[in-house]
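Researcher: I need the complex structure. Ligand is iron/sulfur cluster. Inputs:
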Amino acid sequence: MSKRETVVVPQEEIVRQKEFLHLIRELNLGKLKKYSISTFGCQMNENDSERLAGMLAEMGYTESQKTEDSDLIIYNTCCVRENAELKVYGHLGSLKRLKKQNPDLIIAVCGCMMQQPEVVEHIKQKYRHVDLIFGTHNLYKFPELVYSSMMSGKTIVDIWESSGFIAEDMPIERKDGVKAWVTVMYGCNNFCSYCIVPYVRGRERSRGLKDIVNEVTVLGQQGYKEITLLGQNVNSYGKDLGEDISFAKLLYELNKVDGIERIRFMTSHPKDLSDELIYAIRDCRKVCNHLHLPVQAGSTKVLDEMNRKYTKEQYLELIAKVKENIPGISLSTDIIIGFPGETEEDFDDTVDVMEKVRYDMAYTFLYSKRTGTPAAKSTEQVSDDVKKHRFDRLLEVQNRISKEINDELLGKEVEILVEGLSKNSNTTYTGRTETNKIVNFKGSSELVGKLVRVRIDKVQTWSLEGTLI
Ligand code: SAH
Ligand code: SF4
Ligand code: F3S
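Model: Output:
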């Protein structure tokens, strides 16, 4: 997309949406209105849900943890794999009873699943109790859509096929007080042959550098310590801006922002990992020593069929360059198991990459057929049994490697950013190392949001335990 096609939503339109926020607030005045949002999928969806929450707060709704007592229920959906979709249908089915009990209840579904016309049709036919359906491109229009739904009592469907628009300055209510998501670009141009994302999130479009720096500056002032920059393909940030802007340059700018101590980002595509970016990770103090660089598969043949645009050897060379330039960097990856036509030898290549790279962490997924993507048409689909067997084998290898890497930390001192109480505990706090490892330790609430040093005295595959120094 050229520079001219990416347009920030005009200020007048944002003002108009804000007027709807106030109109709804007036309608809700004196009533204790509650909302609940269920979010599926990736961090971009989490960040979108934070925006929905921000708008809902301004409409006079407070958050409820339970769907049962909510006046407005939202499902922000994902369609990257089939099981994500099935979960949503399950939830929607069970809401029918609630709608019967409370006809004023507003049920909304949005997100990536809604960008598929057949899904919208299915919901309209089978889940008639849904009031509002919208997609990924018109999230900022949520106030107007809620207002229309309240006024008309009819099902409102508003899906845009694609969008060059970026909305700035909409309210946001963030889930966490220490770490914040910052979406820096939307969409994806890569069209990996298995992936639905480019069809439901549109083409790549980057936010303005100044807008991002401003958002992060405010986060620093508000006391946030860590930011994670989000994009389906963050390292192609800026390519559509037509100026001398790159993701590396953005990192150098954000590295200067007061208050922010740590900068993370995801996801990087190997084909766009420039030397400039490797040096930026090395040289920017606040940019964490961690890189999520999905390989997806080890076999060059499979990578080619996946349209990943690199070979096994090129990927391994890239990893070698990263390790050489950034000593001690932790690496993580995404891997798809059972891509159509994946033979046992192809899969051995995936295991081989895992052994050679020695990732700190790997997210492994069973290939899921996505209608509309080229790979779904393949007649060489791998059976579920074979996929499951390969999955188990890969998990065993990764668990061993993760544990071996973590074992090296035993007895060592590390710096962690304290995030909060550990789940199900009143005294155990949790934080992360720069390399993204979870460390649990006995602490106290005033440490939340602080960088502290701990000595590691117990090591597990997925987490570490330490003592405050
Ligand atoms: N843009 C990111 C993330 C995309 S979705 C990236 O390129 O890495 C997150 C992960 O879901 C992908 O990395 C991939 O491993 C997985 N994924 C995508 N489509 C899938 C499919 N059809 N079946 C199984 N896993 C899939
Ligand atoms: Fe999907 Fe590939 Fe784009 Fe990632 S880079 S979102 S896997 S098409
Ligand atoms: Fe899912 Fe959409 Fe993210 S399909 S992975 S929620 S971009």
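Model: Summary of the prediction. The longest strand covers residues 413-421.
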